[in-house]
Amino acid sequence: MAAPIELRLARVAQLYHTLDPTPFRQGDLDATAEAYIVDWAQELPREAPLAILVHLPRAERESPAAAGIPDSIRAYFAGRAEAERRALRELFRFGRMALALGLLVLAACLGAAVLAARLPLEGVLARLLPESLVIVGWVALWRPAEVFLYDWIPHRRRLRLYRRLAAAEVALVEG
Question: Could you read off the pLDDT of 102-122 as tens digits, one per residue?
């Protein structure tokens, strides 16, 4: 059974971004409507299919503009899913570049630390310089580690959510 998300509108135009020149079929949803749909979808069970029920007065529901609502909602969230997929791909591309750079910096710092340990230094400086270089080398891997361990998770969640919304059954009901 599909988990319902219900929208109650007085007019079809409430669903769409008012500055969008093509408000039907490929148009952007109003930010408030999108936030409402996304927030409700996040509260529903993750495995349940979604159904978006758009309540409209009879005159609005029978208008030509209302006929495009199901396709426009699905197309909008399919577009959001595609944008999120691209963002995730770009994040991993950045992560790979950052990892390569971080490993290069780590290798250079470890090599420099070995050379610094051989310098004829005494006291605190003799220990501080090589250890500082080792720390800088490991810090260079901080961002790649963050990307591959944590940063991808919210993107993946949004991608799944938008795909679920793009696949949702959208029905116009009187209300």
Answer: 999 999 999 999 999 988 888
- Other C-beta atoms lying within 10 Å of the C-beta of residue 50: 22
Residue 18 pLDDT more than 80?
no
d(CA 33, CA 160): 19
Residue identified by tokens 């969008």 is 20
29 DSSP assignment: B
Residue 169: CA atoms inside 13 Å, Cβ hemisphere, count? Answer: 10
List Cα–Cα distances, 25 to 18, 65, 69, 116, in angstroms: 14, 9, 7, 65
Is 32 within 8 Å of 13 (Cβ atoms)? no
Half-sphere CA count of 171, side-chain side, radius 13 A: 12
User: Could you say which DSSP state residue 52 is in?
Assistant: E
CA distance 104 to 89: 23
SS3 assignment, position 25: coil
Helix (H) or strand (E) holding 93, with range, is helix 69-117
Cβ neighbours of residue 109 closer than 8 Å, sequence gap 6 or more: 133, 134, 136, 137, 140
